Amino acid sequence: MEAVHGFTPPHNPKCSCKTCFSNRLDLEYQNKRLQAYEQTTSIEYIRATFERPFRAAVDHCADLKKASESTNVHRKRYADLYKGMCSILQKMMKSQEVNINNFLDVQETINHEPHILRKLLEQENMEVITHFKMQHWLSQRWEASFADYFSLVRWLILCLAWFFPPMFSVFGAFELDFAKALRVRWNSHLSSHFCFFILLLLRLFWDERGTSLRAARFNDTFVVELTLGLFVMSHLIILMVRLSHRGIKSFMKDWWNWVEMCIVINGINFFVASSNIALQNQNALPMNVNRRHIPSTDHVYMCEFSLSLMILLMVVRFAYFVQMTYRFGRLIVAVSQCAKEYLRSLLVLFIFFMGYAFAIYGVLHPFATKPEDRRHDLTKNNGFQVYTDDFLDTAANLYWNLLSLVDEGYGQIHAGFTGPNQTPVQPFLSILFSKFLMVSFYVFIVVALLNVILTLMIMQAESYKTMGDENWAFARTRIIIDYFNYEMAAPPPFTCIILLLTTIRMITTLVKRILRTRKMRFKN
């Protein structure tokens, strides 16, 4: 018995030991998978899939051959390229001994033709067909090294779009002028949307092949790491501002500052540990393994523990706020008003996320996962699937592009080509479960933003406490209304609705005021 895909055969076919029995089962399973794979990669399938692009490649090579003969430059190399293409096309049309890897290599070469031909012209005595794979690997490594830096910039823009509004709200809380604070908040809304749409444009139009957007190091868990890091940084800024306002002695006397410093130090520790674990696991992988789909168990545990730590911090901070209201105001009024605003914000977030889940999973998803109905032409757009049929195809295309902003593993097809506009072949239930995991990442970000909002409320409560306001329990309602900005915890696409409603409300208020003044003038 021969080994299939690296599985060792049993020592003896009749042996019944545990190792041989396990190897025998693995071998049978791999043989079944190999048979199913051979059925899908038959000569008819290859002909139907690769005939048109290969004929186009042969015609293009013939044009290159004629151009080289007319100019008498690199005649032999273009002739070898034309000869190799013709021989592979003849094998595909006549012979039954066809290896699909050869066609995939040459198809990748066609997609990266200018880069490959430029490298072919720089080297001497190269056999074109045998070195296609090595040249393609070199081009991929060059693009991956550039994609690492571009992906870092892309994630920074994404986090800037997420964290501009809450950070502006924190710094705007120190302003006594409410109009100025609201103006800063409005500008932060616009800046977050500007960053988000710039990011979307870069994602869609950076490279038609989509390879420069596929980074090897920055996966979906990097969002969680960066969220935790920005959460820790925001609390460090708050602690530094509090230290500068109060002084060292009063800062050290407050027990809550010690608790928050311990939590921030632990957050830094877990952030560094999870990043190191992720980098070690990714660097240990071989070169031909897709690193985006190899999650680290320790890394997941670290992120879950950090999330539980942030939720605990939010609960303790809420209890501290209630304790302050009990000491400096009426308990029933303070707790009821605070709980009302807090639950209202959570309800708004719940409606946002449930609407998002229903719109994506129930409406767009059935139309986005029908690759058999989207027969794409490999001669157009460098071999990538582009939806141009109707409105539903456009919506599906936008859906997968938006989803690939968060998880770059989506948008891949199993035939060997990757691109931003392709649909993965996955069942509905498995894709729903994976989207549920992605929503958990959103929950992680929302919890971090709610922590920042609670910190803002506590800082305002402490400022009222130091001023010695007797009616603090009633003045606290103004704090929550003016600064409890639950809208900022929603993702940037959903805050578009809030911006639109706010603009409509402002316009209607202005129109009502104008009509009221005209009516009063008419009466007078």
UniProtKB/TrEMBL annotation:
GO cellular component, one term: plasma membrane
GO molecular function: inositol 1,4,5 trisphosphate binding; store-operated calcium channel activity
Keyword set, alphabetical order: Ion channel, Ion transport, Membrane, Transmembrane, Transmembrane helix, Transport
Name of the featured protein: Ion transport domain-containing protein
Major localisation: membrane
Natural source organism: Mesorhabditis belari
GO terms of biological process kind: regulation of cytosolic calcium ion concentration
Transmembrane segments: 155-174, 186-206, 218-243, 255-279, 300-322, 342-364, 436-459
Topology term for the membrane: Multi-pass membrane protein
Subcellular location: Membrane
Ion transport domain residues: 230-461
